[in-house]
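Today's session is about reading a structure prediction critically. Students often jump straight to the picture, but the first step is always the sequence itself: look for stretches that repeat, for charged clusters, for runs of hydrophobic residues. Only then move on to the predicted structure, which in these notes is written as discrete structure tokens rather than atom positions. Here is the chain we will use throughout the hour.
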Amino acid sequence: FFEENKDAGERVKAAEKEAESRRKKEMEYGERVGVVKSGVAKRLLEVMMRKKSNLSVAADVGTAAELVALADAVGPAICCLKTHADVLADWTEETSKEVKALAKKHDFLVFEDRKFADIGSTVSMQLESGPHKIAQWADIVNAHGVPGSGVIEGLRDAASRADHEIGLLMLSEMSSKGNLATGLPGYSAKVVEMAKAADDFVIGFIAMGATGGNEFLVMTPGVQLDVGGDALGQRYNTPSKVIGEQMSDIIIVGRGIYKAADPAKAAEEYRKQGWEAYEKRCE
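Below is the predicted structure for this chain, in token form.
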């Protein structure tokens, strides 16, 4: 496990094999509306087709005002807004209402990147209760597979009481250097197995590329216009590589947009490059 170079090479080969296999049987976004089982997945695919966007912006900002301003600025270019409510010291119920209003205005879904990772009864309370009351405003949430299938059933339980449908993404891989989700043999495959057993609720995965087949959506973080990394171990790939080569469905972009001088303009450039990569792979 800790022979990092050897394991990294094996993972690359496995990812390439998976991407090639999916490339041979890849369905276009529109075709997959009839294949996915979750209503949230259907909604997301429909938004993607309407807006010609496979871009999700990671709104990793520090205040509610910054979040709302960013969502309004990039809204026209995105299919999904990824939030971290727990990093905002001034988050209130009004913040969630403003985000929901902007999602309706600009036609995007809201994904709260909570990364639930506890037993079923605990994650059920975390989704439904607490200071953020995530189930009241998020369309999508995510979870680690470490606790087992109970984490899925706990979240499903809380989601069943929401006034709108909620979909779940499972983290089968991560983009940070040395992460155990990608490094632990068999982990990703087990997460996919768990997802397939709950595919009316699980809409897909956070992963580096093709995972699970056409019935699931794959969102990939760590995307910038140039390949590289940061001092804290994050690694970046380009939209063309993530969508065109790794066969992911949605790119997640953070700093490349929210730290740009003009976030709206930057978001449009990422939207354009992500969609062009998708159209090219459909040729």
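Discussion point for the tutorial: Strands lie at 55-58, 80-83, 109-116, 140-144, 167-171, 202-206, 217-220, 228-229, 235-236, 250-253.
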